[in-house]
Amino acid sequence: MIRHGETAWNAEGRVQGQTDVPLSAVGEAQARALVAALAGERFSAIYASDLARVRQTAAPAARALGLVPRLDAALRERHYGMFEALTYAEARERHPAHYARFKDKDPDYDFVSGESLRRFYDRAVGAVGAIAARHAGETVLVFTHGGVLEMLRRHALGTGLSAPRDFEIPNAAINWIEIGPEAWRVQAWAERGHLDAALDDLRD
Hints:
Layout: E1 2-3, H1 8-12, H2 25-38, E2 45-48, H3 52-65, E3 70-71, H4 88-94, H5 96-103, H6 117-134, E4 140-144, H7 146-157, E5 174-179, E6 184-191
Parallel strand pairs: 1-4, 2-3, 2-4
Antiparallel strand pairs: 5-6
């Protein structure tokens, strides 16, 4: 599981959600760096969110591995509704009551026009669970978003949705999750030896 590379909005601390923001030059370099990091691995398939920043991150590795990414809109980031395109500081200033519910990880808060944490969790876990069922016994490469990765790790470790996030989710880092019939297990997290630097701009 790989989070997309850096975008200009990541660097600005701006909420992207499902807004279709492309990679920055830094993100493009991170995508190229993944090629060497994944060169010794064998994958049965590649899946990716259909948003541009994820497709662009997946493209160099897909070419090197000789696989065509299967695009899946269910792997998109959480829909942040009225927060999208604002910086986190702007969201806090303009919508303090809403920002407080967001910070508290209220599982039913949906940004008025967006997606609740509970619905997002169900979507993310359901999407990856369906991929795993389709490829039982195989190793699959999935390119997605930081929020999706957070939901998957919480599911694997049995962490509640409202618990503080005590782990990193850097851009273009590699995460390994084993999905079995009985349980999910985090094998490795936030591998980034292939990167010069990587942002973790998600907010608790």
